[in-house]
Write a structure and sequence with these properties.
By secondary structure, the chain is α/β, with parallel strands linked by helices. The protein is built from 15 helices and 22 strands.
Length: about 575
């Protein structure tokens, strides 16, 4: 919801609620943020409480405007994120920022800017003394904390090193913003002010405060993400930031950047939540319920096929994978129509992958709940596209089921006929993701007719060996759009790296008994041969495959990426679509 208020001295006041109007009953419920439950016994009470809470806040909001309309001389933006108020203020004088911690950045071997000199003077030269005494050098991500000793509203100064000015980029800005936010939280701050928007650096984005505000807000919210749904002991000890003040100059540009950041981070954190949730919560039915709820709240349409409908459609590859599970499969199709140019995103949705009868090793099998990261990314990207009102026709296709061993499970050596009529020899039941995607891609081409299809899947361990966790493997048949995807990846730092689909690899996917086998005859180039398999189920549709096995989840946190689900893909795909429709 957006509220604009005009007065002599008040420029704009926005209230953003996490993707919904504050007047819509239950709209800020946990499932919007990717919570574990769509419904609960206490949902009615929770909805009533939240509606009352927002109503009281709204009354207080108008009271404050009336009382302070002649005193406020700066843009003030108040954002509601998961019941947390985040205040973002723009002003030129950082000495007025009221917060527990004020974050400022300094480059290595650079003189203090005029703004920093004013701050240094106000602190009796504490900053310059720290530099002179070598307590702070400006090395990238270096931290130095100084007390303001009551000389200004902020209680402490957090100096963060920006490194070499010539090497500073928009991604560096994201990284230091994420580090600073988490450091402020560790200092037990409830509020902090961020002056990094005022940092001058060389590059095309240096003067664009909208882009810089987007980067800072993204990294701050993404960096402060915590998955604590199941913590019951000492939950009150979990450190949280209640508010952030963003200091800058151009109110209009900053508000646009923040608005977009709120949507992108909400949707990215939805992916994170879904990936982090246990598989007894995130089932195929759970994903279908989220899709249905999104369609009710946003300009989206949804169609969900159950097992009987899949049987009628002849989606035997999906049905083969799900045979061993008690959970019923779902085939989810979302559509958003707001432009002439069209594309589809297809996400692998294996909510738990035991390997089936080709059982995975016991060690780390619990991590196989993340095998639906592609599906989560599709859901969240559809949501983001609708919230941002992108001028595109977009389809989201999700084949989702479990891969479990049982007396009814598909067996190595079984042969099935896919949706497009090709026969598949299933030689390894742990190569199941490509099976569900084969039916989904064939359906997408035949029934939806997009100008481009991009699939996302935690498909192979081989891509982790090849690329690690810093880039997704990319293969496909549309070089122009693959190049565009590389550009989008560099701008969002959700990067991709192209691998070949040469004809020489195709020989290893031919079956002696069927049209194609689901694993290669040789063990090399596993990521490529996985994509080669998928290519068998596409006729002429332009197609790009993203293997996100290495990027969907991390074992250790990074500057603004948490341990566990990363939410990879949402910002990448949105940036790509913005370029794609131009």
């Amino acid at each position: 919801m957006e509220i604009n208020v005009s007065s002599e001295d008040l420029s704009i006041w926005f209230i953003f609620s996490s993707g919904t109007s504050i007047f819509k009953e239950g709209s800020a419920s946990k499932e919007t943020a990717g919570s574990s439950k769509l419904k609960s016994d206490s949902s009615s009470k929770s909805m009533l409480y939240k509606s009352f809470f927002h109503f009281i806040n709204l009354l207080h909001f108008f009271y404050r405007i009336r009382k302070n309309s002649k005193k406020i001389k700066k843009l003030f933006i108040e954002v509601v994120i998961l019941n947390t108020m985040v205040n973002i203020t723009t002003e030129k004088n950082i000495l007025e920022a009221k917060a527990d911690v004020l974050v400022v950045g300094l480059f290595e071997q650079q003189p203090l800017s005029s703004m920093m000199q004013q701050l240094d003077d106000a602190l009796n030269h504490e900053i310059s003394n720290a530099i002179t005494q070598k307590r702070f050098t400006g090395e990238l991500k270096e931290i130095c904390v100084l007390s303001t000793q009551g000389k200004m509203p902020a209680k402490q100064i957090l100096l963060i090193g920006l490194g070499d000015k010539k090497e500073f980029t928009l991604e560096t800005l994201r990284k230091v913003s994420g580090v600073a936010a988490k450091e402020a939280r560790e200092m037990n701050a409830k509020s902090f002010a961020n002056a990094l928007l005022l940092v001058d650096f060389e590059g095309k984005d240096e003067k664009n405060e909208e882009t810089k505000a987007l980067a800072i807000a993204e990294a701050t919210i993404l960096g402060l993400y915590q998955f604590t749904h199941y913590k019951t002991v000492d939950k009150e000890k979990i450190k949280k930031i209640d508010s952030m003040i963003l200091i800058g100059n151009n109110a209009e540009q900053i508000s646009k950047g923040i608005n977009k950041a709120m949507i992108l981070t909400e949707c990215t954190n939805l992916v994170r939540d879904l990936v982090n949730e246990p598989s007894n919560v995130v089932t195929p039915s759970h994903l279908a319920a989220i899709a249905e709820k999104m369609a009710k709240e946003l300009p989206l349409k949804t169609q969900i096929f159950d097992k009987k409908q899949l049987e009628k459609l002849g989606m035997n590859a999906i049905l083969a994978v799900t045979k061993g599970s008690a959970e019923e499969p779902k085939f989810i199709v979302l559509s958003y129509q707001n432009g002439k140019k069209s594309m589809a995103i297809v996400g692998k949705g294996i909510t738990f992958d035991s390997g089936g009868l080709s059982l995975k090793p016991e060690e780390h099998m619990e991590d196989m709940k993340i095998d639906m990261a592609g599906a989560a990314t599709v859901l969240a990207t559809m949501k983001a596209a609708a919230m941002l009102k992108l001028p595109i026709t977009l389809f989201g296709v999700i084949p989702t089921c479990e891969n479990m061993p049982s007396g009814t499970a598909v067996k190595p050596g079984d042969i099935v006929t896919g949706f497009n009529g090709k026969t598949i020899e299933i030689l390894n039941t742990d190569a199941e993701g490509r099976l569900v995607l084969s039916d989904a891609l064939a359906y997408t081409e035949k029934e939806l007719h997009p100008e481009l299809a991009i699939d996302l899947a935690t498909l192979t361990g081989a891509v982790i060996v090849a690329l690690g966790s810093h880039a997704a493997g990319m293969m496909g048949t549309d070089q122009k759009n693959m190049d565009l995807l590389v550009e989008a990846g560099e701008e969002t730092f959700e990067r991709v790296w192209q691998l070949p689909l040469w004809d020489e690899y195709k020989e290893n996917m031919k079956s002696d008994l069927a049209d194609v086998r689901n694993i290669s005859k040789i063990k090399e180039a596993g990521s490529i041969t996985g994509a080669i398999f998928l290519q068998n189920f596409i006729d002429s549709m332009p197609w790009i495959h993203l293997d996100i096995a290495g990027t969907a989840s991390l074992n250790d946190e990074r500057e603004y990426l948490p341990k566990g689900g990363t939410g990879y893909g949402v910002r990448l795909l949105i940036k790509f679509m913005e370029k794609y429709v131009q």
